[in-house]
Design goal:
By secondary structure, the protein is of the alpha/beta class. The protein is built from twelve helices and five strands. It has helices at 2-14, 24-30, 56-68, 72-83, 103-119, 147-152, 162-177, 180-186, 197-205, 215-225, 231-241, 249-261, and strands at 17-21, 38-41, 94-98, 125-128, 158-159. The longest helix is centred in the middle third of the chain and has 17 residues, at 103-119. Residues 1-13 have low confidence and may be disordered.
């Protein structure tokens, strides 16, 4: 009895799966799906602020504290400790990433794929990354799905290849280097299973105009000049017009503050 019990127990441990989720709203729904496996909740927004390949967390933590009032101890627990789960992938049979189509998610995604490319031992890496959902014409993200809808996306997962991982790593390195010309050149190449990265990078490049305001600042200024002054209305209009950026209200506030600093709004 003891021997026969030990075999399936050992096998279940070896069959453990890791799911990397793009935020707490997705995690809340995911936990109700009954999908087996451990979860890692990604809570950073690497599409904003400084990034690096050598001391990422040491520069991110103070920046997040300054611009988004992130508590240092909370950042350690909710961000850094979560990412540390990637230090030991040997106990997982596979890794599935649940991300979205917008710039915030896509930049986070290529960084995670860079880490997986460096740490993975050849086990399958799957990607679930929808840009639409039937019946939801204004689909914005996984967190707005119910458990059954989220679970149904398992059928859409794709297996990432080594080329996909290499492509993501290259895109991340160009992003870190802020090499806009080479990122623009990258847009002319084949994106493989990372096809939603292309429109996200196109949106990213619009944040670096040769002169004047960037696209986000111009759009917010246009929205405000149209007569909208209530923040909730400004948020809603921005999300309607530019869902590709995937920005939260805190991120929009960050850009509004920049416009105030430039004395373009009051």
């Amino acid at each position: 009895m003891t021997f026969s019990f030990a075999i399936p127990f050992f096998s279940s441990q070896k069959m453990k799966k890791l799911h990397i989720l793009n935020g707490d709203s997705t995690a809340l729904v995911f936990k109700q799906t009954g999908i087996a496996g451990d979860i890692l909740i990604w809570r950073e927004i690497l599409s904003e602020g400084p990034v690096s390949n050598t001391n990422l967390w040491s520069i991110r933590s103070p920046w997040m504290k300054e611009h988004f009032a992130a508590n240092e101890s909370d950042y350690q627990q909710l961000v850094i400790n979560e990412v540390a789960k990637l230090e030991d992938l040997s106990k997982y049979q596979s890794t599935t990433l649940w991300f979205e189509f917008d710039l915030v998610c896509q930049i986070n995604l290529i960084y995670v794929l860079k880490l997986l490319a460096e740490k993975s031992d050849g086990k399958p890496i799957f990607l679930i990354c929808p840009d639409h959902f039937e019946g939801l014409p204004n689909f914005r993200g996984l967190g707005e799905l119910n458990p059954a809808q989220l679970k149904s996306l398992e059928a859409s997962k794709v297996t990432l290849t080594q080329r996909d991982l290499d492509f993501a790593k290259n895109a991340w390195n160009l992003y870190v280097a802020n090499d806009i010309p080479r990122l623009a050149k990258l847009l002319t190449t084949e994106f493989g299973n990372l096809c939603l990265l292309k429109p996200a990078l196109e949106a990213h490049i619009l944040r670096f105009p040769a002169t004047g305001l960037n696209y986000i600042e111009e759009l917010l200024l246009k929205i405000i000049n149209s007569g909208l002054s209530n923040k909730a209305e400004i948020y809603a209009k921005f999300w309607e017009l530019a869902p590709i950026y995937g920005m939260t209200d805190l991120q929009i506030d960050y850009y509004l503050k920049k416009l105030k600093t430039k004395e373009l709004i009051t």
